[in-house]
Specification:
single chain, alpha+beta, 6-stranded antiparallel β-sheet, 2 helices, about 30% strand
């Protein structure tokens, strides 16, 4: 009888732990969703790869103006890194317009930061 009570208690703890995982996932953006947190803020980044040359890509990060620019740079870098790992197996990127460029060299279009680069195989 004691063993049964211990087993039931262990099962209850395990199930409770699994439920907490779902709650954590719901609170952390970027896990299972398109938003990624940088500087404590959420950024929506999208990457478009060239159909004929998937190593070449552009990244757009929405709402990147003003004080959000630093986080938007990192969100764009993150999106490119994910893409390059998926297609080449490494994270090297050669940027034509990259997140480390001076602010005056960056392109903002309708509040979105536009970056461009190529995965280095």
């Amino acid at each position: 009888m004691v063993h049964r009570a211990i087993h039931l208690a262990a099962l209850a703890l395990a199930l409770g732990g699994l439920g907490a995982c779902g709650a954590i996932k719901d609170r952390v953006k970027g896990i299972g969703g398109g938003d990624v947190l940088f500087d404590g803020r959420s950024y929506r980044a999208s990457l478009s790869a060239d159909r004929d040359d998937p190593a070449a890509f552009t990244v757009s990060v929405a709402n990147a103006g003003g004080a959000r620019l630093a986080g938007a740079r990192e969100a764009g870098r993150y999106e490119a890194t994910k893409h390059c790992i998926e297609i080449t197996g490494n994270s090297r990127v050669v940027w034509s317009t990259g997140p480390d460029a001076p602010a005056e060299a960056l392109t903002l279009s309708d509040g979105a930061l536009l970056l461009a680069g190529r995965c280095a195989g």
